[in-house]
Input
Amino acid sequence: MKIIRLVFLIILLAQHLSAQTRDDIFGNAPVTWLGLDLTHLKFIEKTTQDKNAGVITNEELQSEYFQSWNNLFFKEHNKFNVARATHRDFVGYAMEVTQKENARSTRMYITDNALEYQLLTADSISKFIDTYDFGRKKGIGLLFFVEGMDKRKREASMWVTFVDMGSKKVLLTKRMTGLAGGGGFRNFWARSFSNVLWDLGKEFNR
Output
């Protein structure tokens, strides 16, 4: 019995030591970039005819642009620099975690109701994380839950979320907005993600 108790205590201690805390975010603990979760996106359409903001279908958003925006963080990581934003020398990449969520979503994203912008809450984020499959990944994961793109405001709103992948505990989540801009639909809205990363880096300084 003593041996069994000792093994049990060792397991509990190991779990405790491997658990991440909010303080680890601002230390030098490794961070893994998990990508953009766009499954709860509300794209506010019909508020402006801006040629760059574009007119797009629900199917095009999911089949083309969800992955295209995510790919920018890997292919153009100098512009979409997660390591710099989190004050790390480098970060890991496991964007398949959010890509699985994006691929199987069947929601309608486009709406003409401006009141549907920014509907998520911190409690919503915790519930979403509870359903996530991180596989065997451990440590701190970072992802953006993109909740809205508003053509009238020319901005996107998202929840910047740090999570302990082992326990599925949300360590920190905060709503941030980024101004959009640039030519073409993809680049117009991609600017909002790079702007949020830039602001996130400044948040770390504070």
